What does this fold into?
Amino acid sequence: MKIAAYHSPAIMKSLPEMSAERTQTILSLRVFWHRIFDPCPTLESSALDARELFESFMDDEYESGRPYDWTLHLRLLDWLRSQKKHLSLATNKEIQLEMAAAAAYSWCTSDLSNSLCLLLQLKGWRETAIHAVKYKSIFSAPTCVLVELEQTILAKSHQFKIASNKKELLAATWQRLPED
It folds into this structure.
């Protein structure tokens, strides 16, 4: 079984009860549940059926073959927008903020480049963005804060800037995340 198959609830349900593969898949999905919902408690509490939402999204992600990287929460937000029954979740400002912060924090903890700063603006945001800074030392945690932008632009897609310091970050050009 391919490693990515451990991330599909549909495949998990097709595996024999009490098999090692099924147990492995259940554990893997539990990790992803916490990765998605722990930093986004409003999403979990606002969803009518968080389990159904999670399973449908994870099956779609498995089918897409995309990597499970720092953009996972942004892809979830796009997925929510594409689902009529979840549209109210995608337009909830608190959920958007939690998901943007979760993506930024994930970038801080997983990016191995020398870049230290990230500025992330979600699709539809105009005056605000999330500013994230990686660890300054082994004794400090990454920081993610909502900031007001000096130049207001309407983001037509999720976009970000990455740099080594704040001065470079302000001068950097926006990069768009690919859309499906």
Strands lie at 117-121, 128-133, 143-148, 159-163, 175-176. The chain has a mean pLDDT of 90. The longest helix spans residues 20-37. The two ends are 27 Å apart (CA to CA).
